[in-house]
Amino acid sequence: MKHIEIVVPCYNEEPCIRPLYEEVKKVFAGISDYSWSLLYVNDGSTDGTLRELEQLKESEGDKVQYISFARNFGKESAIYAGLKNSSGDMVVLMDADLQHPPAIVPEMIKGIEEGYDCCGARRVSRKGEPVIRSAFSRMFYGTINHMTEMNLVQGGSDYRMMTRQMVDSILLLTERERFSKGIMSWVGFETKWIPYENVERLAGKSKWNFFGLVKYALSGFIAFATAPLRAVIYFGSIIVFFAVIYAVYLVYEAIRYPENNGSGFGTIVLLILFFGGVLITLLGVIGEYIARIYMELKHRPIYIEKINTLKDK
Prior knowledge:
Layout: E1 2-10, H1 17-29, E2 34-42, H2 49-60, E3 64-68, H3 75-85, E4 90-93, H4 105-113, E5 118-123, H5 131-147, E6 156-163, H6 164-171, H7 180-186, E7 191-196, H8 210-224, H9 227-256, H10 265-297
Parallel strand pairs: 1-2, 1-4, 2-3, 5-7
Antiparallel strand pairs: 4-6, 5-6
């Protein structure tokens, strides 16, 4: 019997710990072909989350495991720790606040059985979310897909079921500044997206404020996009090009109107444009080398082999 392990990062989610377990338990009551368990990752919570986990573990036994951080390291670190310590044949990544409805787990299982490597939940509505936040989210997805080799699905969430092979591939990327959505896209593998409606939190409030999301988006952009560094080269080259055009214009003016060339103002502007463009271009070249060093230091695998362990679609 194959085992499904559900990884749940949690930070100050005391009122959600047991309700989430009970909801998952109800879902798997109708699934007889798979065993299951939950692995909670307590991300340095300051409320009673750890106490709830200890009590749940005591009452439910092997169905519940947990890891507790020494302090708050952030959700990305919690995701990595959960995946690193998981051992299931399939691994589900799920939030603790029940905004990721456990009821769609059977659909995810069906997708994996069809031969997909990953089944992700895609939010099809942003009901209850501020308009500005929604607009920035759409803009971020459009920009990062255009400027990187990734293809992040609009509304795609961290809530997904992955095969062991995909989880192991994600763990090959050991970079510290992690952007899980980008990493999951970068490793490849075929994903089936399951739509779901936005669900309100069971309790408490979101740990993500607007500025936190902006910081997270910038982190993801920097982790995968080197286009801004390359753009500096193009920008500098354009300035040099216009400087050359301006030089031709000044020579023409000097020949045609020699009596108007005493101030030297045009020559000064030309020199500033030309040397400024050269310096910017050189900075862009240096930036290109820095980008390559940056990517090398991440120690990402050169390739990832896919082994067909499931039946063909």
